[in-house]
Amino acid sequence: MTESSTQNGYLFKTIGVIGVGLLGGSIAAAARQRHLAETILGAGRNPSRMRAAQQAGLLDRGTTNIAETAAQSDLVIVCTPVNHIVQFIQTVAQNSRPGTIITDVGSTKQQICEQLKGTLPAEVTFVASHPLAGSEKSGYEFSDQNLFQDRPCVITPDESVSAEAVSRIRQFWEALGMHVLQTTPEKHDLILAETSHLPHVVASALAATLATENTRYTSTGFRDTTRIAGGDPALWIDILLSNRDAIVTSLDKYSQSLQQFREAILTQDEKRLRQLLEDGKKKHDTLNSTP
């Protein structure tokens, strides 16, 4: 980080987290552990949970007042469900001081960026982000200060955003231990449909096929493969519907792959089946060598 981008030795003087769940709480915990801000604020809907998050040491102050949190922060991270992000960013922007940078953790980007384009005050900057980290669990109780370590974060800034603002958001995620990738909102959604959204649908569909009477026969293979199906359905409905076209394209591609397996098994085509399995293994093995 450069001297011009720090304040009293901190990357940001005050960081505000809107939505203190698993991701928001983990951001607060990681930022505190790495001394990225002098003060960490949090805002959410439930006053008792905000008090509890503060008592747990995640926040210096927790409140239900989003406008107040925005007005006091230099960086605001919106960690709400996808279908609420635009609304909260606009509220934050209307109450922020000049120079404030806003980012988010939304799993889809095109819809958010399109809806926000040209709607924010000129002196406030939004840099769209998607840290690729999380868990099937939810709630600040499961916050993990190391959740972002060695994980990718995708940023999709608008062309009009200053290089300085993009650099500071990049520095922020890198300071949490992430490696940052930059692309367009459209490309982000196409990629994530394949690498994140499709796997959730597949895991959910696979889990749903399990006959109740066979549950006791499952072991690590089935449970590992379906782990992400344990995510909050309400959150995933928002994600899937906000990236509908890209996900349907990925589902069609996956259906074609399943059909190839079906035909090879049905016709006892050992050569074709071996090729399909080897192709899958090669792709999987490359994941372990990808930074």
Low-confidence stretches: 1-5
SSE order: EHEHEHEHEHEEEHEHHHHH
Describe the global form.
elongated
Number of helices: 11
Q: How are the strands ordered across the major sheet?
A: 3-2-1-4-5-6
Biggest pleated-sheet summary: 6 strands, parallel
Distance between the termini: 22 Å
Rg over C-alpha atoms, rounded to the nearest angstrom: 21 Å
Tally of strands: 9
Helix and strand composition category = alpha/beta
Global mean pLDDT: 94
Q: Level of helix content?
A: 40-55%
Strand coverage percent:
5-15%
Structural summary, described in words:
The chain has 291 residues and is of the alpha/beta class. It has eleven helices and nine strands. It has helices spanning 22-33, 47-55, 66-72, 82-95, 110-116, 163-175, 185-208, 220-225, 233-242, 244-266, 270-287; strands spanning 12-18, 37-43, 61-63, 75-78, 101-104, 125-126, 129-131, 152-155, 179-182. The strands form two sheets. Strands 3-2-1-4-5-6 form a six-stranded parallel β-sheet, sandwiched between helices. Strands 7-8-9 form a three-stranded mixed β-sheet, with helices on one face. Helix 7 packs across helix 10 (244-266). The chain is elongated and about 65 Å long. 36% of the residues are buried. Mean pLDDT is 94; it is low at 1-5.
